[in-house]
């Protein structure tokens, strides 16, 4: 993850070769394709179709969801503030609120709990594994459904800010030509 690599390098004020090599793949993908990470890997991007379905369910139930819009510069301010804290205090904080980091950490914890329970002969779903990270992801999804679709990605996601900034220099661009499009009726 490019954001984790950047924050680690800033917090430690060093760039390990293994970190640079690991960050090379997402960096190249971002420079070539733009925000491909957001649409294909981020768990919030994967949840967006479900969020849209739940919003339409609210409308069906005659509970019209809100459509609040926020300033899109928030994500850049958050990324800058976190980078400054990492640089000055050596304290990386973004992994607490960045959905890919949360999902990675939580899936590892869940798997560990399952194996520990299996070794102890206890089977069944370990409800106690839910932590603040899962609650945070649930809160993001609930806010997206009820109040502001796309608010996390568009206005708060620090990874989205980084990938958005990098996508300004993307090499491959898709342009749609309306004249070349065909429609069937």
From the structure above, extract its key features.
mainly alpha, 185 residues, 0% strand
Strand content: under 5%
Mean pLDDT: 86
Helix content: 55-70%
- Shape descriptor reads globular
Q: How many helices?
A: 9
- Rg calc: 20 Å
Order of helices and strands: HHHHHHHHH
Which secondary-structure class do the elements indicate? mainly alpha
Tell me how many strands there are.
0
The N- and C-terminal alpha carbons lie at a distance of 44 Å
Largest sheet descriptor: none
Low-confidence stretches: none
Structural write-up:
- The chain is mainly alpha-helical and 185 residues long.
- The mean pLDDT is 86.
- It is 64% helix and 0% strand.
- Helix 1 crosses helix 2, helix 4 (43-60) crosses helix 7 (132-146) and helix 5 packs across helix 9.
- It is built from nine helices and no strands.
- It is globular.
Q: How would you briefly describe this protein structure?
A:
The protein has 185 residues and is an all-alpha fold. It is built from 9 helices and no strands.
Summarize the helices and strands and which ones pair or pack.
Elements: H1 2-12, H2 17-33, H3 36-40, H4 43-60, H5 74-89, H6 99-119, H7 132-146, H8 151-156, H9 158-167
């Amino acid at each position: 993850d490019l954001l984790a690599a950047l924050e680690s390098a800033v917090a430690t004020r060093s760039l390990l070769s293994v970190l640079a090599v690991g960050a090379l793949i997402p960096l190249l993908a971002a420079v070539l394709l733009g925000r491909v990470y957001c649409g294909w890997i981020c768990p919030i991007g994967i949840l967006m179709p479900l969020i849209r379905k739940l919003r339409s369910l609210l409308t069906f139930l005659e509970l019209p969801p809100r459509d609040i819009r926020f300033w899109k510069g928030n994500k850049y301010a958050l990324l800058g503030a976190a980078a400054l804290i990492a640089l000055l205090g050596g304290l990386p904080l973004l992994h607490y609120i960045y959905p890919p980091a949360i999902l990675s950490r939580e899936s590892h914890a869940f798997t560990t709990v399952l194996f520990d329970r299996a070794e102890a002969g206890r089977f069944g779903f370990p409800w106690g594994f839910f932590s603040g990270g899962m609650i945070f992801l649930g809160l993001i999804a609930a806010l997206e459904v009820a109040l502001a679709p796309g608010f996390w990605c568009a206005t708060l996601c620090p990874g989205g800010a980084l990938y958005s900034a990098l996508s300004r220099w993307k090499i491959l661009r898709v342009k749609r030509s309306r004249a070349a499009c065909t429609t069937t009726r």
